[in-house]
Amino acid sequence: MIFENPAGLWFLLGIPVLIIIYLIRSQHEDRSVSSTYIWKLSTRFAKKRLPIQRLRKILLFVLQLLMITALALVAAKPAVVKGQTYDYIVILDASASMAQKNDDGTTRFERAVKEIEELTAGISQGHTVTVILAGESPSYLINKSSSANEVKVALNKAVCTQGSSNTAEAISLAQEMCDRTQKAKVLFYTDKTFEKAGNISVINLDENEWNVSLQGLKHSGKKAESVFTGTLISYNKDAEVTVGLRIDGKNADAGIVKCIADTETQIEFRVKDLASFDVAEIYIESKDGLASDNSFALCKRNNKKHKILLVSESPLYLESALGSIENCQVDVVGAVEEAANVGYDLYVYDGIAPEDYPTDGSVILFGTDNLPPGIRSDGDVEGETKLTVSPKAESPVVEGIVLESTVVNGFGRLVVNDLWQVLMVCRYTPVVATTQRAGGTKFTVFSFDLHNSNLPLKKEFLMLVNNLVEWSIPSMIDITDYSVGQTVTIAKLPDSLEMYLEYPDGNIRNLGMSEESCNVTVNEVGVYTAVTKFSEGGDYADFFVHINAEEFTEVGGSINVSITEKETETKEDAELGVWFWFAIVILLMLLVEWGVYYYEQY
Fold first, then answer.
1. Neighbours of 241 (CB within 10 A)
2. Are 344 and 359 in contact (CB under 8 A)?
3. Residue environment code for 341-368, b if the CB has 16+ CB neighbours within 10 A, otherwise e
4. pLDDT tens for each residue of 248-270
5. Residue pLDDT, tens place only, 20-66
6. Are 592 and 101 in contact (CB under 8 A)?
7. Which of 123, 316, 411, 484 sees the fewest Cβ atoms within 10 Å?
């Protein structure tokens, strides 16, 4: 038995009210009599009648109690469910493409929510509804509810995301529900198409809405003329759209672009005399189905010049390699006495070493015996020896480095403690090692003379020096282009005192300072800014987060859940209105109470 209107049970609150009335009402009545003589004569008769009087009062109380109970049951409309009950498992796609609007201004997600509400309201009593919200991390929106109102309240709290939907995990949650139910029906509200759906009813909300999506932006050229090349796609129809370019928030150019339906279209802007920029953004002006993919930004990696001090008597190889790296300012001196060992991001000592190493930047040493704590040279080895990357090396310094026919003529045997990592070896003997100091700066030691090696003549040398600089002078972020749902690693810079991340909506999140880096999952489209503070000044890095382009392509493959029907007891074929019989009982009790009252009065 179930209740069609459970709210009717609130009438049961009349029971405590009835009890309170019986407790506080007067226990005697005032009546006028002509003589006490007759009253005295009736005393014996009244004593004999007293048990019947008490029984009458109890009977009236019980009848009134039963009437309130029956009235609450009638209001709640009890009924016996007809036929087999079902557990409806509804999967609601909450991916970015579900936010596309049709000509009426209603999104696919809103239409799906409305259809689920209508489905729940029309389902016979005795069934349950489970709603799974399928976003990046699918979760239960409501679990096995038999109330249409509860489902509606839960759906009104659901939000369409700007990321992708993890269909596989959502199906897995639905399968778990199927394994725990007597008999399930699975419905998937989405705008994706599938080759096959086993035991799943797919309700496709795609109405072929028109949408223009910007999906990329690149920059090339030099100061005289910078070229910005973007990519856009007009989905479901040919169109002419206005595309503009903004540089650091200021409009630079605009034009009309003709697009062929469902085909990539290249757009190009040329800007003269552009010295530098932080953020370049292309945007479209159109009333298409989705606004969150109407812009795409290109964030330059931090344009701050890295200051590098090179101390060497023969700086040709290192000066050329360091000078080829973008955003590097290299100062070269021939002796330690000429060097200002402060104010640089990186110090490179080639065959020369100071008595005390600087602490405000990273240090690279080539062929010197004056080594920092934790590492020492245990004798020299003469003769020509092959140089190779250590098989145990796990460092970005040697990433992509393949040393073929690379030799050194003499080296020192390095002995390191656990804080150092060996990167290169000669005859299994460590010759290159790195470590990170307490303040966050890095130390790299080469135990051979660079000029007594053919390493500078190899093509890998430039890559090695570039890797060394990037590792030694870390930037807050290495990538400036992310999709919604991805994790961004923000590095802690040396000597930083505070770090925070500014979101596209202006909100600010403080980042932890206890670890070397902080991981942030980005779920909002737009430009983010990571900021770090030092004792004097600070630094920043921008990056852009966009909707994954694959979100707008049709999804193939198959989806399926396994449904095993379990034996259940057979219900009546028709829905019996039990409340009707409760109404009959109320009428009978009213007649009985009237009879008792009539007997008392007359």
1. 20
2. no
3. beebbbbbbbebbbeebbeebbbbbbbb
4. 999 999 999 999 999 999 999 99
5. 877 776 555 666 766 666 556 565 555 555 455 566 667 677 777 77
6. no
7. 316
